[in-house]
Design goal:
Blueprint lengths: L1 E4 L11 E6 L4 H12 L17 E4 L11 E5 L6 H17 L4 E4 L4 H8 L3 H16 L9 H7 L13 E4 L1
Parallel strand pairs: 1-6, 2-4, 2-5, 5-6
Antiparallel strand pairs: 3-4
Helix pairs in contact: 2-4, 3-4
């Protein structure tokens, strides 16, 4: 997986999904900003998304000026710390793989606030996020066989991974 950093405005990035980490305390304000930039009707996911650790809700932008296909709201819980970031990022990795997302951007514009709450440097918070995301997206397939294919065709699978996330951008 290619990992890169981008300073481009979120609305202009052509990605399969953009992730916005949201802590429980500022949930309403963050959702209002997301609604405004994506053109989605106000209060459309308020009942579904509570910003608990690992909550992930997908929004499909309505505004054509927004270049990405999806926005994923990722809950970080009440208090942001290393464990909440690890759990949320691992959940995101698994969800992104299940959704077959190829290119993903993570909005880390609030990383300074997250780092302050976790009492860690900003670089370490970004590192924890990336490592946990990769762990969540990892799938060990070397010893697995595609049982249905073996029974159907009488031959083993080629051992290729089912889906791989190609790029992760930190925004």
């Amino acid at each position: 997986m290619k990992i890169s950093v981008s300073k481009s405005p979120i609305a202009s990035l052509r990605l399969d999904a953009i992730v916005v980490p949201i802590e429980k305390q500022g949930c309403e304000k963050a959702l209002e900003a997301i609604y405004k930039i994506t053109g989605v009707a106000e209060k459309s996911i308020d009942d579904d998304f509570k910003a608990e650790v690992g909550d992930a809700t997908v929004i499909y932008p309505q505004d054509k000026a927004f270049a990405s296909k999806r926005v994923i709201c990722l809950g970080l819980g009440d208090k942001v710390n290393n464990d909440s970031i690890r759990k949320a990022a691992a959940t995101l990795g698994a969800k992104a793989k299940a959704m077959k997302i190829g290119t993903l951007g993570i909005d880390l514009s609030e990383i300074a606030a997250f780092a302050k709450q976790a009492s860690e440097p900003e670089g370490y918070i970004a590192q924890v996020f990336i490592e946990s995301f990769e762990h969540g997206a990892y799938e060990f397939t070397q010893l697995k066989t595609d049982r249905i294919e073996v029974l159907k065709n009488g031959k083993k699978s080629d051992g290729k991974k089912t889906h791989e996330i190609k790029e992760l951008q930190l925004i």
